[in-house]
Design a protein that fits this description.
Elements (H helix, E strand, L loop, with lengths): L1 E8 L6 H12 L5 E8 L6 H11 L3 E5 L5 H15 L4 E4 L11 H9 L4 E5 L13 H18 L12 E4 H6 L11 H12 L4 E5 L14 H21 L3 H6 L4 H4 L4
Parallel strand pairs: 1-2, 1-4, 2-3, 5-7
Antiparallel strand pairs: 4-6, 5-6
Helix pairs in contact: 5-8, 7-8
Bound molecules: guanosine-5'-triphosphate (GTP) and magnesium ion.
The site of magnesium ion has 4 residues, from loops.
């Protein structure tokens, strides 16, 4: 399979080259082709320049630059570009800050090979981990944010709706109207998952060891939380309008045993 990792960056100068190198190293042991597309929003710290240099030396590295419009807009731009120009079988979402370990990616891809369409690297299934040094507020925000979103959107059976580590078959993204997902922060992840669910994608979660970023600063703030809450409410409404109900959604989802892949 041809795998394209779509990596959004904003001020990830110290992380991006080591990440791309590590991905290439991991893929030397896999029967897949890897290309990496970095979607950089003209980072003031020069991340784009570093990627441009890498892309000049390595045809499997690509840079897509643009103005800063948030994480969701960056992913939409990246997905559209990759689908049009890079001929992927599978697109991978991952952060640039090593929170998502390249070493975990083969287990996500293994589930695609077993027939899943949309695989989530999940912090909240058995075996999944969040950083030990996350403070109380961050834990609360992440865990209860997920519960809240699951409840409102009716995606009861997916434990980690906001994870940004995913492997997605290109057919799923081709079915979704990406322009409809225009949201800024991590509610993009929720929206994309919801659309994939409604489009009938076979969704699977595998446990990951989510690490705290070791270099750089977080870009997501209180505005993203507000957007997330508002967005979850909107999804609930929309589902009503679509005539979907929880039963329909549940029937496509997985049992607990199916959801958790062996380590
Ligand atoms: N292109 C682009 N990338 C972004 C933007 N905001 C965040 N990112 C990238 O998206 C990924 C996730 O953002 P983070 O800042 O790590 O968010 P987080 O993981 O919730 O916060 P941390 O605890 O700091 O890791 C990183 O690779 C960021 O560089 C943006 O507006 N545009
Ligand atoms: Mg991060």
């Amino acid at each position: 399979m041809k795998i394209v990792t779509v990596i959004p960056t904003y001020n990830e100068r110290e992380n991006i080259k080591p990440l791309i190198d590590k991905l290439m190293q991991v893929f030397t042991f896999l029967p897949h082709d890897l290309e990496s597309l970095v979607v950089d929003d003209n980072s003031p710290d020069g991340t784009g320049g570093i990627v441009r240099d890498l892309a000049g030396k390595n045809q499997a590295v690509h840079l897509l630059s643009g103005k800063k419009q948030g994480l969701g807009a960056a992913y939409i731009r990246g997905f559209k570009y990759a689908l049009k120009n890079l001929n992927p079988d599978v697109l991978v979402e991952m952060d640039a800050d090593f929170s998502h370990r390249p070493e975990d990616l083969p287990r996500l891809l293994a589930q695609i090979e077993k027939g899943a369409d949309f695989v989530i690297g999940s912090r909240y299934v058995r075996g999944g981990k969040i950083p030990k040094n996350w403070n109380f507020f961050r834990r609360l925000n992440s865990r209860w944010g997920n519960r809240f979103a699951r409840y409102l959107a009716g995606i009861d059976d997916v434990r980690d709706c906001t994870s940004g580590f995913r492997a997605i078959k290109k057919q799923v993204l081709e079915k979704i109207n990406l322009n409809k997902l225009k949201v800024r922060g991590y509610s993009f992840q929720m929206n994309l998952l919801y659309r994939a669910y409604v489009a009938g994608a076979k969704i699977k979660e595998v446990p990951i060891d989510f690490r705290a970023r070791s270099w750089g600063r977080t870009k997501l703030g209180p505005g993203d939380i507000a957007e997330f809450v508002w967005n979850s409410v909107k999804l609930r409404f929309e589902k009503g309008l679509d005539g979907l109900n929880k039963q329909t959604l549940r029937s496509e989802s997985l049992s607990d045993e199916e959801r958790v892949a062996p380590n």
